[in-house]
Specification:
10 helices, 12 strands, about 20% strand, alpha/beta, Rossmann fold
Amino acid sequence: MQTILVTGSNGQLGSELQHLVADFDEEGYRFIFTDVAELDITDRQAVSCFVEDNNVSILINCAAYTAVDKAEHDPEKADLLNRVAPGYLAEAMEAVGGTMIQISTDYVFDGMGHMPYREDAPTHPTGVYGRTKLAGEEEVICGCTGSMVIRTAWLYSTFGNNFVKTMLRLGRERENLSVVFDQIGTPTYARDLAKVILTIVRAGIKPGVFHYTNEGVCSWYDFARAVHRFAGLNSCDVRPVHTGEYPAEAPRPHYSVLDKTKIKEAYAIQIPWWEDSLKECVEALK
């Protein structure tokens, strides 16, 4: 029996994993879902004891400090959750000879490129969030020899707060809306990522850094327009604006498309197009 610990289980990805595991009827797996109320991952001793007492063999860390702008004024807490805590988790898994999946972000890149970023592309985060997430990757890779890092981007879900839900709400409340068109990336349906994680669990974790988002490319403006189109919201005029017209505390990558060739080849998976997955999510939210 393999015991799989999922930390940060109340977030978008953790919630999607809980949803999918309800139908994960294969024998030989036991899932434990925790959030801060059940396990404080910033407590080194608590993490070590929990992993050992529950015979955890695989750990999936979905926990993170994701308030990108707030992180600029709260670097200590961002560092604690994004670097220190993953280090404790990796240390605990190494001690029991286990494996680990750490979820990371496109913010490890500065977004100045014009080609999809491969896993071996030079990293250069420009804000506190990106720097602490990159440091967390390094803690995990150094701390647990059986660790995998999965970088993702523009995550949304039927669970939690996210861009899709915000656009749906504003589309009903406002006559017009401005969304940046000069930040390019790929939306990722958390349910698709959760499915891939379960595929990886079945097939076996391959150590190293991997990228996963849905297929395709768009701007936040395109993303917002697609949300409204699939929801049948036609009364709100969505207007494109430059990033400079929408001031934010933390800099955003202007181009953060991730190359997914490595994960597709390693696990023989097909990745859904972003619009297909978005339509599925919007339908579910209806």
